[in-house]
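Lab meeting prep.
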Amino acid sequence: MHEYSLACEIMDNVVSISESNQAKSVNSITVGVGKLTHVNPDQLMFCLEALVSDNIAQGAEIILNEIYPDMECQCGFSDSGDKFCTRGDEVVDDIRAFLEVPCPECGKMMHASGGRELIIESIDIEQ
């Protein structure tokens, strides 16, 4: 489970940044997780929650934001990837939502741009 090593790196950065800003505690941590990162958000959340139990971030709220890729076509059409997570009555909530997506303008296959981010978006600290 590579989510644990990613969570360790995130927490190392949170603790380092918090300490360098003379924080007394961390109120919340917001992490952006791209839909194309191959990271399981539930596993990442579990690992982060376990890691905040014995450091300056103990008790901090952890918020995971989904980052959707932009879908682009050769014809120039582009739109946010969140609009392509439904196909008929089916909701596709994984990487399959961004594969083999026909362009609504010309019918050619679109490609995903972005959505591969895993970033600390914000750290709310108490000074």
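Slide two material, second protein:
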Amino acid sequence: MKQLLIPALMLISVGLAHADSDIYVCTDANGVKTYGNVGDAKGCKKVDLPGLTTFPAPAAKKVTKAPGDFPKVDDYTQKKREADRKQILTDELKAEQKKYDELSAEYKNGEPDRQGGERNYAKYQERTQELKESLNRSQQNIDALQRELGN
């Protein structure tokens, strides 16, 4: 354990040391080595470490406009794409609203009609809960589509 601790402490000490700080290794009466930046105790020796190498940070690149051969979409094409996108979102919103209305009619405010296979009340409650969750999901989809259309 001590054999792993000493190199780790040395690395930490070297990593935390400033460029102009001195590092000392001190050995106590039991032979335990400690590393530090103060070597005024008995049995301390200065460690000769190589100088700290530094590199300047790379210069920040300035944002330039797109190169001349970069593909550009003309205004007419872009407006057509936006109109198509809006139409697709509108169609999806209408379909989701229709689905919501159908689910709401079937749900009947939490009291849907019992089906023939639901003699067991637990099955009826399970279907009612699934309808409620489907209504919530559908409402969330409608809200998301309306937000997207608003953008």
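Talking points for slide two:
The chain has a mean pLDDT of 82.
Helices lie at 2-16, 75-107, 121-150.
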